[in-house]
Amino acid sequence: MTQTHTEHHERDDGRAIDLTFAEPDNVVRGGLVVLHEVGGVTGGVRLLIASLAAEGWLAAAPHLEDEPTPEGVLAATDVALAWLVDRGVPADLLGVVGFDMGGTAALLVAANRKLGAAVSVGGQSVAEKPALIDIARELVSPWLGLYGDAGDDLSAAEVEKLREAAAGARVATNVVRYPGANHRFDADPQAAVEAWQRTLSWFDAHLR
């Protein structure tokens, strides 16, 4: 398994974050910012980072606060994106992926930063702030949303409203519901495999 590493990264302009990252063994296809769940960079997050690196992506997760503000998410993502560029990743080969809290964060980034692609796996209720539907209407990066109906974060009706909002954006979007899966996709292994393949295919299609 590809190894992950953690470092404290400081920019010349004074911005600083902790980053956990993994590098591909061979050619780097592009760079992905991984936005984690509540609880920080867990073993599951490290596994995701390593798995993305094994697919050829230089993957880096900025360490977010448990309840980051939208401004905090964007600031941390900007530093992680700059870190990827410093390592030779072209701007058109940059993407973002997040799950749970990070799923909402990835949607937020996709509405505020022009990247090659973004993927959200789960997220908060649309009744919470910032409202997912309002964010989805402002998407400027191609975005894929993957949601499990069995979880308590988003109802099927809420996901459909999110799909409608995203469809009005001027970029490619897709929203996929999995009736037997929860927000972690551990309730339905088959859905988890399919969601992983959709994620890879989305990046393959848009980061090239």
Structure description:
- Helix content is 37%, strand content 23%.
- The chain is of the alpha/beta class and 208 residues long.
- Helix 2 (70-86) crosses helix 3.
- It is globular and about 45 Å long.
- The model has no long low-confidence stretch (mean pLDDT 90).
- The relative contact order is 0.13.
- It starts with a strand and ends with a helix.
Summarize the structure.
Keywords: Hydrolase. 37% of the residues lie in helices and 23% in strands. The chain is an alpha/beta fold.
Question: Which key phrases capture this entry?
Answer:
single chain; 208 residues; alpha/beta; Rossmann fold; 8-stranded mixed beta sheet; 6 helices; 8 strands; 37% helix; 23% strand; globular; Carboxymethylenebutenolidase; EC 3.1.1.45; AB_hydrolase_fold; carboxymethylenebutenolidase activity
Gyration radius from CA atoms, angstroms: 16 Å
Please state the overall shape, judged from the principal axes of the Cα atoms: globular
Tally the helices.
6
What is the H/E string?
Answer: EEEHEHEHEHEHEH
| CATH topology-level fold name | Rossmann fold
- Could you name the ranges where pLDDT drops below 50 across 5 or more consecutive residues? none
Reading off the top of the CATH hierarchy, the class is best stated as Alpha Beta
**Strand ordering within the main sheet:** 1-2-4-3-5-6-7-8
Return the domain count: 1
Largest sheet: 8 strands, mixed
| Structural class computed from helices and strand pairing | alpha/beta
Arithmetic mean of pLDDT: 90
- State the CATH architecture: 3-Layer(aba) Sandwich
How many β-strand runs?
8
Report the β-strand fraction as a percent range: 15-25%
| CATH superfamily annotation | Alpha/Beta hydrolase fold, catalytic domain
Helix content: 25-40%
